[in-house]
Amino acid sequence: MTGLPESKERRVFNNLIGAMGNTPLVRLERIGRDLPVPLYAKLEFMNPGGSVKDRVGAYIVEQAEKRGELKPGGTIVEATSGNTGVGLAIAAALKGYKTIFVMPDKMSNEKILLLRAYGAKVVITPTDAGPGDPRSYYEVAKKFAREVPNAILANQYHNPDNPKTHELSTGPELWEQTEGKLTDVIIGIGTGGTITGVGRYLKAKNPNITIVGVDIEGSILTEIWQNKGVIPSGVYPKTYKVEGIGEDFLPSTMEIKYVDVIERAGDRESFLWARQLVRQEGIFAGGSSGSAIAGAMKYCRKLPADRLPVVILPDSGSRYLSKFYDDKWMREFGFLSMEFGEMALGDLLIAKPNKALFTAALGDSIRKVVTVMHQNAVSQMPVVSADGTLAGLIEEVDLLNHMLDKQEHSPNETIDALVQKAGAVFSSDTMLETAMPSLTQGYALIVVDANRPTGILTKIDVLDYVAGKI
């Protein structure tokens, strides 16, 4: 048999490289519900190697072969935060090359194990070693490339094939997926390859498109951009925990002329937004995706309603399970406080053992509501309108008082006249500290999404959670 013909339409490919790219665009309906504009995310973790760097790794190898730099049996060396290494490792596995990857010691263990699973040699260097330090991962990678026979340095920080990849693939995809209607693209900045390549392509199509970079606090890329490509005197990088974003120098793969705006994000907000992303949107993404969302939220809140922004989410959360998706790790570094007031109500709902939410509807009979309360041992229930939005609250004490009233009442009456205004209604991202006054006043906290009830929290729910964590 000759096998199946390759077909992009049917998603049939001769090897994994063909499956790279054409990642989906998804509207962030829940996280972006309060923004004045619709916010879409390009899910780059849906590349077969789990990140936007699949595109870069494959293209760098292909071009190195075409130029005759990479020869059969050769070795690919790279300084990487992990994801470019995976992209290179996939291409190396398919083409029979060896790989050596040099990583700073702040990178997750999952990334190290993943690269070793591809057969790579992984060398770890100190995170705090600067670009000129012989111990830095840049310099150690260069040393391997010089000393290992038949080796090349992929050199993502200075290889023009890096931004060219996105000029040829990511940029055109964004243009086609939005039918040329996108107005703003929000992209985390590391090597600068994505933002430069995408910016170069999109600005050629429409110079009015705004390219927004997201930099991490501790990086000096913002100051370099503000200073027109020169590191200002007295500006020094600081260490930070988010991986794959920010730099302590200006890579030549970043052309700052394509960046119109920069928003900054810190470690804590990056990690909390990533955790919120999976809980609210089901999108399991990495820390730099959290940074991108943090930057996108700050930027998009300032936009007029006629704009169409897109944010790029670079990689998967599966590489950070031992880091910011672990509550213990988050508390150890002060990103999740033991002060429970800093917990979001959505987090408390997730931790609640009994997550079932029982609601009544306008028009329900007293008999029906009492039966539901009795069967499920609840004393109060949110009441919803016909469209599912919150109409109020019904409590058993009001039902009891009504039925014991001197006037004769029937259990077949509707509950409508007994529905109270809900006194404590909050969104899932509200901090417990904000909602505590309502709780201590005796209210149950009704958690809503777009004014539709998603959960209810009582004093005993919060007490159970706190007792379980002490």
Secondary structure elements and pairings:
Layout: E1 25-27, E2 40-43, H1 53-66, E3 75-79, H2 83-95, E4 98-104, H3 109-117, E5 121-125, H4 137-147, E6 151-153, H5 161-168, H6 170-177, E7 184-188, H7 193-205, E8 210-216, H8 221-226, E9 261-265, H9 267-281, H10 287-300, E10 309-313, H11 327-332, H12 345-351, E11 360-361, H13 366-376, E12 380-384, E13 390-395, H14 396-403, E14 425-427, H15 432-440, E15 445-449, E16 452-457, H16 459-469
Parallel strand pairs: 2-10, 3-4, 3-6, 4-5, 7-8, 7-10, 8-9, 11-12, 14-15
Antiparallel strand pairs: 1-2, 12-13, 15-16
Helix pairs in contact: 1-2, 1-5, 5-7, 6-7, 9-10
Written description of the protein model:
There is one protein chain. This protein is of the alpha/beta class and 470 residues long. The strands form 4 sheets. It has a 6-stranded mixed beta sheet with strand order 1-2-10-7-8-9. It has a 4-stranded parallel beta sheet with strand order 5-4-3-6, sandwiched between helices. A 3-stranded mixed beta sheet has the order 11-12-13. The protein has 3 domains: 19-50 and 162-338, 3-Layer(aba) Sandwich (Rossmann fold); 53-153, Rossmann fold (3-Layer(aba) Sandwich); 341-469, CBS-domain, CATH 3.10.580. Helix content is 35%, strand content 16%. The radius of gyration is 27 Å and the shape is elongated. It is built from 16 helices and 16 strands. Helix 1 packs across helix 5 (161-168).
